[in-house]
## 1
Amino acid sequence: MQAALTPHAVSLAGMNRNVLRKMDQRGPRYTSYPTADRFSERFAVKDYLHAVSDRRGMGAWRALSLYLHIPFCDTICYYCACNKIVTKNRAKAALYLSYLKREIAMQAALFSGMNHVEQLHFGGGTPTYLSDSQMGDLMAHIRAHFTLAPDEAGEYSIEIDPRTVSVERVYSLRAQGFNRLSLGVQDFDEDVQRAVNRVQPEEQTLDIIAAGRTAGFRSISIDLIYGLPKQNVMSMARTLGKVIDAGPDRIAVYNYAHMPHLFKSQRQIKDEDLPGAEAKLDMLSLCIRQLTAAGYVYIGMDHFAKPTDDLAVAQRQGRLHRNFQGYSTHSETDLVACGVSAISAVGGSYSQNEKTLDEYYARLESATLPIARGIQLSMDDVLRRLIIQRLMCNFELSLTSLEIAYPIVFREYFADEMERLRLLEQDGLISIEDEWITVESKGRMLIRNICMVFDRYLNQDLTQARLAGMEATPQRYSQTV
Ligand code: SF4
């Protein structure tokens, strides 16, 4: 069980900057383990069918989590690293919907008799790129194929771009069954907005938040980013002040990952406009201080929530979970994801759909699920996934409970990892006792670095790279600080 952190407990001011610099490496965000870059094309539809039939064979009744990916956006935000398609041609969305509905029907047939849904999330792209009537049609299709838990028991969320919705649309989304809103804001500062090609007037965002409240949404969350061009500590403080005044239930503050070698639109961002590493640390420090001082609980990594929000309650009760949408309160669910590039997690498997529209459509035309790659987890993968989950969500690990659940002696099985953990202990990020590994308050921000110790694939890569005298840090990952 976790106690809420006080403002001072998570202040970066007390942290040795040398430690922070040492920890500022590239690394995964662990929305899954193994991470998606480890998926293989050897994993095929038949493997997914096995995972579903294992679930049926176990006779276990577990609720489902559904994810729907809507890849379209009106305009490009330069910082974006999402899988999206920027177009003003709305006919593309109509065609996409026809295929998405086919995939939903195929998945529903597979899960027939065990299709109870407790969590539904629309992500993108921009889900509100769909018109009101298209969204109503899609939700009716989902309800016709899956059994959705009643409003009070289910968590039905949608990411919205305040530039694409009106107050009336917010009411309509609530009537269509959504009860959680997630708003992309990033920064209220106009210079920053111009520099990233996302001009979003403050009043527009505040109006949508107010509409969300009066329409009866249970939870409203706001996404911010630190490390954007033209940002500095002063502008960040002003944005945070405005966000606190708006009072969302959850706030996510993401670290901008500048990787122009991977994401073309990021090449529009001028290097000289980007804040340096020290300024980014100051901004992160400020976010933690200002938000916790305003009463938000620091959940971990990049998430904050009001103490009364489900996320904070779930963390206090030790039942917080982490999946592709970030932190979640629904741990005992399999995730069925539909749409181009979407990733499902069923039983001990992950599977990802085709990444381009043409391939996605072609697979559905031939009446097969559009799965392109995936992975079947070994016992070692499942064990490490559990450890990473516990560390990211509970910030502590009971070695005894792992030894009871798995045929291992922890300190022998993870002998190499224990050596690396001792170094983190010397830096004050964790403490190691006979039966427990506990993440210290300073380590919470660097939880990715701590989890990286248990990533067998990453450590194999690093060892090979070092032996070959090459750059040791994989370029496809973002900086951890
Ligand atoms: S940040 Fe969101 S709205 Fe902007 S391009 Fe990316 S997916 Fe689209």
Note: The pocket of iron/sulfur cluster is lined by residues 73, 76-77, 80, 82, 84, 124-126, 161, 184 (CB under 6 Å).
## 2
Amino acid sequence: MGSGPGGKRHPVPLDEGRARNMRANRRVDSKPEVQLRKRLHSLGFRFRKDYRMDLGDTRVRPDIVFTAKKVAVFVDGCFWHVCPVHGREPTRNEWYWTPKLRRNVERDQLADQALADAGWTVVRIWEHELLDAATAAVVEVLSPGVGLPARVSIPKSAST
Ligand SMILES: [Zn+2]
């Protein structure tokens, strides 16, 4: 659904509005994440979402987790996780944002390392990636070499 950020509107400084928006998108079901879950689900994959794991002293919460195959998927916001395409350093409020973003990146690296040490495969998807490409990346890890089933042409009841 293409619902915008409805509800209250009151004037906020531009940066604050942007930050609020991104904060709102961050934890719960950012859109690319929802789409990816839906697609994977429609392809027959079952997974947990926002599954919290304690790995040693590192706590991680991947967006999509395949526990049996030990595959953890993160859908990373371009701004928060500093994607190479859109994650340019913020020029305003740098005193605040830059250390925060750096911490995010470091936390991501720690999470990846902890997961890898525990035998997990980590898939990181940028939120700007197209759904097909994102789906293909995950499927490739789950079922190497199988490739994506023809797009959404899953027979409703093909029992042969
Ligand atoms: Zn990006």
Note: The chain is about 40% helix and 15% strand.
